[in-house]
Amino acid sequence: MTSHILIVKNMVCNRCVLTVENILERSEIEFHKVLFGEIHLKTALTTPQKELLQQQLLRVGLEIIDHHTGAQIEKIKKLVMDKARNEVSDTENKQNLSVFLSTRLNYEYTHLSSMFSEIEGRTIENFFIEQRIEKAKELLVYGQKTLSEIAFELQYSSTAHLSSQFKKVTGLTPSHFKEVGAIRRQSLDKV
Question: How is the beta sheet containing 38-41 ordered, strand by strand?
Fold first, then answer.
């Protein structure tokens, strides 16, 4: 079973996956599966199919990435989001972010970091912090865990460290954010 993989920029949520699946079905493009940031096609696209797919994806804020650097950036983002949300193995969860990315992508972290900063205009670490804070916001809104439980789950060294980063990123303390609720929460694809 041969699979042709397209890398898609900004596909970071389940709604995005469903949207892409619908676009592929309407366009009668056969595919094996659609994952965050990837489309696994059964056959390579013709030029007209690719142009049509690109247009339809652009309408919903997504984009096919043809060049290697863009594809690497999307892979970095996906891995950072997985790690920030604890959606990796226990062994990988215990690794430093730099070791985790270097191991998964088979590149030196300094190369990944400089490439990411050049393209994105922010560091991998800043993106990682933003993703962790979004997860913290989600957990605060649900209201089922204490701040110390959230700090532990997101592997902060202390509740104070989480609170400090939370305030730096959002401008609010976690307790104040909890009071105002989900109003300030962004969807992950907007981060």
Answer: 31-35, 38-41, 4-9, 63-65
SS3 content of the chain, % helix, strand, coil (to 5): 65, 10, 25
Identify the H or E element spanning 44.
Answer: none
Distance CA 20, CA 6 (A): 12
Helix, strand or coil for residue 11? Answer: coil
Interacting residues of 45 by C-beta distance below 8 A, sequence separation 6+? 4, 6, 29, 53
List, for residues 126-150, the tens digit of each pLDDT value: 999 999 999 999 899 888 899 999 9
How far, in Å, CA of 5 to CA of 34, rounded?
Answer: 10
The SS3 of residue 13 is coil
pTM confidence score? 0.66
The CATH code of the domain that includes 168 is 1.10.10.60
- Strand, helix or coil at 32? strand
Same domain, yes or no: 140 and 100? no
Beta strands in 80-185 (DSSP E): none
**Residue (of 32, 23, 25) closest to 53 by Cα position:** 23
